[in-house]
Amino acid sequence: LERGKVEGSLSMLLNLVRQGLLTPEVASQQLGMSVAEFEELL
Q: How many domains is the chain partitioned into structurally?
């Protein structure tokens, strides 16, 4: 269940960044990962 919540958050944050509503810096901070790690997912 916890993994599903994390994947849901990740998916939501990726969508927000793709739409330009959120910066990769803020999104990666929310997920507890580096900006580089997050940008690889984009």
A: 1
CA-CA distance, 33 to 19, in Å (whole number)?
20
Q: Cβ atoms within 10 A of the Cβ of 38, count?
A: 21
Centre a 10 Å sphere on the Cβ of residue 17 and count the other Cβ atoms it contains.
Answer: 20
Q: Give the count of beta carbons closer than 10 Å to the beta carbon of residue 2.
A: 6
Phi, psi (deg, nearest 5) at residue 19: -80, -5
pTM of the model: 0.80
Domain membership of residue 35 as a residue range: 2-41
Mean pLDDT (10-residue bins), the chain, 42 residues: 85 96 96 95 92
CB 27 within 8 A of CB 15: no
